[in-house]
Structure formats: structure tokens, C-alpha cells
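Final report, section 2: Outcomes. Of the targets proposed, SDR family NAD(P)-dependent oxidoreductase is the one most frequently requested by collaborating groups, and we therefore present its record in full.
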Amino acid sequence: MTLELSGKNALVTGGTRGIGRAVVLALAGAGARVLTCSRSAGEPAESLQRELKALGDEHAVLQADVARSEDIDRLVAEAASRFGGLDVVVHNAGVISHVPFAELTEQEWHRVLDVNLTAAYLLVSRALPVLRDGASIVHIGSKVATVGVPLRSHYTAAKAGLIGLTRSMAKELGGRRIRVNVVAPGPVETEAEVPAEVVARYQKMIPLGRLGRPEEIAAAVRFLAGDGASFINGETLNVDGGI
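The predicted structure is given below as C-alpha cells.
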């Protein structure tokens, strides 16, 4: 059976935990060759490498901090060396903190914006020379971008910025048939510790009565990465259970 992403090469940032891990495994499971990264070494990266090994020898997990432009340069260079070109780029790496706006420091503002938004610009600009015509770029955004959440003004600004960046990039890169889209998850179950009362509150807000699963976000990314989404460009796909 021919897999839907067979023959495609993918680069995914922040791919060893949660949504990123599910995206990496979904793309690899669909036949793509995947290079991903983690800011730190450890069991999540090692266990992902073992899972990918079972799917083929062409996948790789590197250590890189996407807040550092030199690390992004190294990631793209490694992808070019291994694969020769890229068909899929997914910016998933992100950081978040909960800080009242009146207490938000300039340092924390830049930390969150650098990883969630500036890294997306750096990643695509560096990858552009090795992106094949018809490639798909997917940014992992957030439902909060359009609704706002207290204590997360910096995070919300970054995710809202991704939508604007995506819309403009989609118009500029369309001549090469390169598509750029956002997948915006709602509340998702990951390994992160979330108080039970917060989970219960979200469950009441979501018509489906539950939080999302990383695999459900990954399925949306896999769809946008494939040829079945060849006329979807500049869009934000909310995967949020209708919250």
C-alpha cells in the first residue's frame, strides 16, 4: 500500500512531547521521512528515536533550541544534507507562562515571542531555499489567538501573530505552490500537569464534553501536509471540539 506522504521529507520543531510527538509519528507513519528536534536531551527524545527506528532508519531526532537562530540554521542544514529538500515544515515548538500583564517583564515577553513567533519566521526563511515547489508549511497556533486568555497576553500575541504571518506568507509563496496554514488546537490532554478543576471547566465549555488528544491535532497536520489539501492556503484550522 502506498502511504499518503510517501516520498516526502518533513522537518518538525519541538517533536518529542505532546502534540509535536504525535505530529512526528503521524507524518512518519504516513510515509514521510522526518527530522525533528528537542531543546534538551533525555528520555522523551530517546524513546521517540526508538519509536521512529521501528518505522525506518531515515528519521532523526536532534537537540536544538529554536530560540537560537544558529540552531535553526543547523537544523535546516541537517535536513538538506539528509534529504536534499523539504516538502513539509511544521513549527510546533512553543513555550507558555502565566503572568499578570502588570507583572509581565520585557525578558519574559521576548522569551515567549521568540520561541512561538520569531522562530516560525526564522525557520521558514532559512528553509525557503530547500523547500520544494508544492511544499506545505504548518504552524501550530492556538484557539486563544482569537479569544484572548487572562495571564497569557504574551502567548496570545504570539499565536495571533502566527495567523497574520501565515496569511502574508501564503500570498507571497503561492507562486511556487507552497501552502502555509495554521492548526489551532483548543484544550488538549498532554503529559503536562493540569489541575482537575481546570480540566472540568474546559470539559463544560467544549460541546463534545472532553479535551482533545494529541493524535487528533496531528491528524489535521497530516491532512494539511498531504496532496488532499492542495487548495487550502492561508487558513486557520481550529481543532477545538467547538469550544
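Strands lie at 9-13, 33-38, 60-63, 86-91, 131-140, 179-185, 236-239.
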